[in-house]
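User: Can you predict the 3D structure for this chain?
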Amino acid sequence: MACPHPHPHPHPHPQQCLPIRPAFAAGDRNGDVTRSFPIVPFVKAEAPRLLPVPDWAELTPSNLRHTLEAQVSSIVGDGPQLQTAAAVYFRTVHTWFPIISETCYNTRLSKVRVQTASAPSDLSLLTLCIALVCKEPVKGGLPLSTRSMYASFKSYIALLEAMGTNSLEILQSRLLLTVFEIGHAMYPSAYISTAANIRAAVSLGINATCEDLSKVFQDPQRVEEAHQTWRGIVITDRYISLENGQLSYTQSGQSIATDFEDWAKVEVDDFTRLTHASHLLDRVLVHIHGTQSHPLFESVEAVQILKSLTSFLVTFQSDDSDPPHPLSDSALALCRSAMLETLEVGSHINIPDNEYCINTSLNILKSLVHEIARGAEISPSVKMMNLSVFLPHYIYKAAMVYLGDARVSGCVDPEPSIRPLKDLLGYLGMRWVAAKRYLAKLETLQENM
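Assistant: Here is the predicted structure, written as structure tokens:
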């Protein structure tokens, strides 16, 4: 079969047509004939090659559905392999980011297998993204095969979007890709993806209360799943805004924060705590990056925020005297990030006769950093696959406080103090590349001191 070529002139290097392979350009089906785009491998920059250009006439829903199904079969597998991949996801990422109903997902997979029908495009895409977000770095970086998978899945989302397709499963796929981008420091992709997620969610109407969601989804399980997905979008938006030093798109003054009435209950689940922590973080981002007002008003606002953060942090304390482990909880991580950001600004606020507030901020800041480092020394480690993408920032920030003190004093060696924090980032880096990047920044700063 002749290769379909994106350019009217022959390419100087002949290319071979191969069946669909994972992480490469997808083929399509017309009747019983399967056609494939040329496989374009990763090559050095000095040997550029033409990439395949999609043919709009071939971009039909049935062709894309077949392509995605073939990718699932090739990358994830069939039957027991699908179940194994799903089980890994629900034992790991799902424990700290429960945006997908395990029951609903498994039910949909079972229906496809029982009816021996083609899987819907959105379900196949979600299955692929579930597999991707569980991929680990190799030797501190992402293998080319993983990067290729990521690029392919992003392109499938773009194709579905171009066809006018949007669904809860596609939105969840987008969100898992964003989590992957955050965890592996893929910027500006993560920042751009977050904004697109918000728009896609608004288009579906899931940025609403549970009562209003019932009008969109008839099944109560789907209502809850949509609600959790919107929470996940809000959380990732605020964490990315923290890392970029900007205001979030989902500010708390909008309907996004309507579920915080749940916090009044005695017991809440971990994801509700994480959502509340993101709400507090958003208040901090508005305080730091919002419209500047009178310094005195800003200091009063900062005190109110610190009171809220302190009250929330107390809920993480155990009965014994040991501090919580720095890797144990995403909500704790976000809350500590918010606290560190607020205290850092408070220690530099320019108000006459305000030495007491500045010194208080510095003392609380040092105490918090010491607690984080102490927790890293005495607590047991957490399983690597269960580590959250929201953990690295505050560990890095705490280490930066130590380095700042050492730079000011000029005589204190910060290495003994920050070694436990660097070890934590090194351990986190075996799961998420972003932690490795933070560690490299710290080591570069130390070398230049």
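Residues 1-41, 254-266 have pLDDT under 50 and may be disordered. The radius of gyration is 24 Å.
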